[in-house]
Amino acid sequence: MTARTTAKPGKIRHETASLATVARETGVSVATVSRIVNGKSGRASSETVARVAEAIERLGYRPNPIGRALRRRASRVVAMLSPNLDNPAMAAIAVSTEAALRDAGYVMILCDTHDRPELQDDYLLAMRDQLVAGYIMVSAVRSQGLEQALGRGDPIVFVARRNPLGGGAFVGIDDRGAGADAADFMLARGIERPAVLMAAQNISSTAERAAGFIERLVARGVPADAIRRASAPGLSHIEIGYAAAQALVRDGGWPQGALCVSDLIAYGAYRLAAESGVAIPRDCMLVGVDGNAINNWIAPWLTSIRIPYEIFGRHVLEQLRLQWSGAATSEIHVPHEPLAAKP
Amino acid sequence: MTARTTAKPGKIRHETASLATVARETGVSVATVSRIVNGKSGRASSETVARVAEAIERLGYRPNPIGRALRRRASRVVAMLSPNLDNPAMAAIAVSTEAALRDAGYVMILCDTHDRPELQDDYLLAMRDQLVAGYIMVSAVRSQGLEQALGRGDPIVFVARRNPLGGGAFVGIDDRGAGADAADFMLARGIERPAVLMAAQNISSTAERAAGFIERLVARGVPADAIRRASAPGLSHIEIGYAAAQALVRDGGWPQGALCVSDLIAYGAYRLAAESGVAIPRDCMLVGVDGNAINNWIAPWLTSIRIPYEIFGRHVLEQLRLQWSGAATSEIHVPHEPLAAKP
């Protein structure tokens, strides 16, 4: 009995004996054959190994599914692509997701894309070579590689920032709602003309926070043209915060209060305040979004809408599992914490 | 002509045709054969593919080196195992190393070991399955898996904390020297009885900072028993800082100044000071070690010995390359920056 490949010019046919054929012929289990094929003869006797090896040869079985072996080998590995490892919020997302995946038997590997499309693509390619089981795209940017991965139907979960190409699984907060809450909070504290500090780069999450903030202020009677907005270009939110605050102050002095669309932006604004002798929050209330753990230690001056990043991980895992099982994914909005007045 | 395997019970021999044999027989290049074997027939004509496939069959060539394929595939991937992704110093090391590796054509993947031996071993195993080209162990702990990896001669570079099992490539600072510099700095500022806040867990880097600090103070005439030391157990340096400061203050009030063996420890101590109405640095000068970038933004009260983590990456890469080429590794002490007085 033989199952050799018959190759004719222009046409390749592989009539390959299966693992099951080898197992049947040798009287051992498929699992044992599989282990031997994969070099893990482990508990099998050397006689069994030899018998299996002989049958593999005789039947023409080829461990041709290198790809399958690779995929199986890597199927417990999930890649997270994140824009900035040194942003505490990104670190919190990574820590939470790593823990949830690990508890479920997966291994998370983390790549720093620096918020740059070409690096995002480099890492998407490299992780594809590693045959990962899925991708977690934290604050992804539009890129060709992302488009291709989506086109292939690779399992992908977007976190914090929605899929820049639309659709897909998402885990984040209701950014618009968070902005609206900040507006209510400031109005309740008697700040009638709050400002907003944001990045110039138009990305879904922080832009929606600003939009929700402004909408709510307008809905509650603040004239739209009385809401001062300042932004600055760049990728570093902390530097954006400083520059945007400079622009705001240059343009009409310090406001009574300002929404900073991320905690890092608030840190940047704080430095300008400290340099200018402006006391935060006495002279100007800064409201951030993120609620970084470090605030409790060294930024007690900051009121921040806390995003419970520690529970993001389990939602990300769930969205991956849905894709692995072929089920539909969804957009998960994790509730942000209500703002409480600082003592 | 045939090169079939001859298997006898108890003995397996593989007389395998090489890629070169197949290439010679078919008149195409080894590279083309290799691409076809790996399923990337790409630019080869279907006739060539068929001819190669036929020769592979006829000669009994087996793409048996699955391992080799995997290794080649993964040889551009390096794993960093780091204890705490949410420690800014660890993030700075990760960012710097990722950039240096990427510039050199490597991909860095990052795993969070949470400073726990069993997780370190989980990730060492998982990364071995990914067939990485090397390991970067940031603040590694003693573990069985580490011992095994060292025993196998895997390329490993230790960063920040020396190999807990001794020897090996290392990139870090002269921790003892940094402690001594902190002592000189405080004495020069008229702080005659500085204290030291540290972790209870005895790890090389921070313990050496404390030792260097105390040694220098004693050498300069401070009685050893006048140097107050406080420590606290746990893994979170920020919490350790708070608890150690509590212990210190309970034991004899706030000192004029204290070395905090990491910036996170200083952040913890700062919170206690803020809660207690103690002004930093006016009432108590805190000197940290790390020089986290965030200090310039929101912790201007902290004097910190800056470690130039941004150049760690290139030293780590160099130490990996030495191991890949079979050369001897070394301990690299990156100079820390001298302390300058705050304005």
TrEMBL record, chains A, B:
CDD domains: HTH_LacI (cd01392), PBP1_LacI_sugar_binding-like (cd06267). Keywords: DNA-binding, Transcription, Transcription regulation. PANTHER family: HTH-TYPE TRANSCRIPTIONAL REGULATOR GALS (PTHR30146:SF109), LACI-RELATED TRANSCRIPTIONAL REPRESSOR (PTHR30146). This is LacI family DNA-binding transcriptional regulator. It comes from the Bacteria. InterPro entries: Cro/C1-type_HTH, HTH_LacI, LacI/GalR-like_sensor, Lambda_DNA-bd_dom_sf, Peripla_BP_I. Residues 18-62 form the HTH cro/C1-type domain. The keyword Transcription regulation applies. It holds the Pfam family Peripla_BP_3. Residues 17-72 form the HTH lacI-type domain. One of its GO terms (molecular function) is DNA-binding transcription factor activity.
